[in-house]
Design a protein that fits this description.
The chain is an all-alpha fold and about 210 residues long. The protein has eight helices and no strands. The longest helix has about 35 residues. About 10% of the residues are buried.
């Protein structure tokens, strides 16, 4: 009887020891073997791999369609957002302008162009005149129209060259610390001046004859 009692007690003691060892083992946290990931890495892992930029217009349109499905908006909301972006772009907010139009230097060039009446502003009406003259079945009219257009184009080229030099000089005086290219600014001014005033983007801030500050 004593032998049986000792065996039962020993067995219970052994089971208690094993339970304590198991609890201690669970309480101990094993090392990860690597640094704890940052919050940015954890969020990126949840979102998945970043897709490469689209290489074709079709692929970009497909992604835009998928984004619209993921973030559905009503037609009125999309139209309102587009109108707001266009209004801010037309008003000259730098954030909403195209990359070619951003920056104080380009804004100053636009003001210099918009503050003057340029012969280049007749470029588009002249192109329409040439097209209409070609449709007229009278050789004399076509000859006079061609001569007029040739003279006007030569005058526009001369004005564009002189205006580009003048604007480049004024920009260097206004922004002496900016690294500007005379040819780039001259071409930008030429394109701006050749557009009809009402169609210029962004809209002119000055009227013809206003002083540029």
């Amino acid at each position: 009887m004593r032998f049986l009692r000792r065996s039962t007690t020993d067995t219970a003691t052994s089971e208690t020891d094993e339970a304590q060892i198991d609890v201690r083992a669970k309480a101990q946290t094993p090392g990860k073997g690597r640094p704890t990931p940052s919050r940015r890495e954890a969020e990126a892992k949840k979102r998945g791999p970043v897709a490469p930029p689209p290489t074709t217009m079709r692929e970009a349109m497909k992604r835009n369609k998928e984004l619209r499905k993921a973030n559905p908006k009503s037609k009125e909301e999309r139209r309102s957002d587009a109108k707001e972006r266009r209004d801010r772009m037309m008003s000259g907010e730098d954030k909403y302008l195209l990359a070619r139009d951003r920056g104080p230097v380009k804004a100053y060039v636009r003001d210099l162009v918009d503050s003057r009446r340029n012969l280049l502003g007749l470029f588009m009406p002249l192109a329409i005149l040439v097209f209409v003259a070609l449709l007229v079945p009278y050789p004399a009219v076509q000859q006079y129209a061609t001569l007029l257009c040739t003279v006007m184009l030569l005058g526009m080229i001369v004005e564009g060259v002189l205006s580009g030099r003048r604007i480049g000089k004024q920009v260097r005086e206004k922004f002496p610390k900016e690294a500007v290219s005379g040819r780039s600014l001259g071409w930008y001014a030429f394109i701006r001046a050749s557009q009809i005033r009402k169609l210029r983007v962004p809209k002119p801030r000055l009227k013809a004859g206003d002083a540029v500050s």
